[in-house]
Amino acid sequence: MGFWRNAFVSLSAVLVLSVTLFVVGSLVFNNKLLSSSLGDLKDKVDVNVYFVTSASENDILSIKKSLEALPEVMRVTYISREQALADYRERHKDDPRMLEPLDELDDNPLGAVLNVKTREPSQYEGVADFLEKSSPLSAAGGGLVERVNFNENKAAITRLQQIIDNTEKSNIARTLVLALISIVVTFNTIRLAIFTSREEISVMQLVGASNSYVRGPFVIVGVMYGLAAALAAVVAFYPLTYWFGPLFYPFPLFLSDNLGDFTLFNYYMQNFGQMFLIIVVSGIVLGAISSYLAVRRYLKV
Question: How far apart are CA 114 and CA 67, in angstroms?
Fold first, then answer.
């Protein structure tokens, strides 16, 4: 069975396999976009620990060190009273009513803040429990922590964790289904291509050719199918990721403005070598295995 001798059959197999490899590449993009979007979601969630105005910086930094020692805590950011006041003025610079009370006070009414970020949203409750049970006290014996805003954000954090868990599970299921469909489509397409050479296989067996000898040319042609389809898919991804990249965002309604400079096109160009290798290897493996299995139907084994 020749690749060029059956040009129409070969073209059909290559086109179908190209679509299959396009699905494989799309799964890689989908997983990367999902990972990036979920990372952005997680980064938007935090817990703030508000301290009384009388809390000393040394006491607050001691609590910061205790929080950083917790394995679930990713980072803790210290915001001084002065910085908290400056941030408040910046947030409300266009609302004089919010700034007037500050101008009437002789002292800064805001306490220092520790901004806590954990590795997973589900771990914030543990941090809140730690702060509640440890009951930090100042050197004078008074309470240091005025409040922790976990309970205020608990519903949103719980909902976010559910969204992340459900999205990850659905993505795994979608990946497995699409991968299975791709394999089935590829197998059936190459099997139909080999169908045109069933008589040639019979003749080769009649003259005493071994099964491995018969399979060899078909496996090589399958590899050629896969290689040609992979090159077509790699070329097609260049304009498609540039034109249609924004349509593939997993969370377009509320994250499309928060993905920074991340786009499918930039990711494709920055990771071209990796994508090229994944698509080419997938094409060669799918083509070779599908040809090997498909030709068994016409072998007397």
Answer: 10
- The answer to whether residue 155 sits within a structural domain is no
Q: Which residues contact 1 (CB under 8 A, 6 or more apart)?
A: 193, 194, 196, 197, 200, 217, 218, 221
Given a contact cutoff of 8 angstroms between Cβ atoms, the answer to whether 20 and 286 are in contact is yes
Same domain as 112, residue 58? yes
27/70 same-domain check: no
Instruction: Give the tens place of pLDDT for each residue, 125-163.
Output: 888 888 877 766 444 545 788 888 887 777 777 777 777
Of 77, 72, 28, 49, the closest CA to residue 136 belongs to: 49
* 166/254 same-domain check: yes
The Cα 119–Cα 127 span in angstroms is 11
Same domain, 165 and 290: yes
Strand order through the sheet with 145-148: 73-79, 113-118, 47-51, 145-148
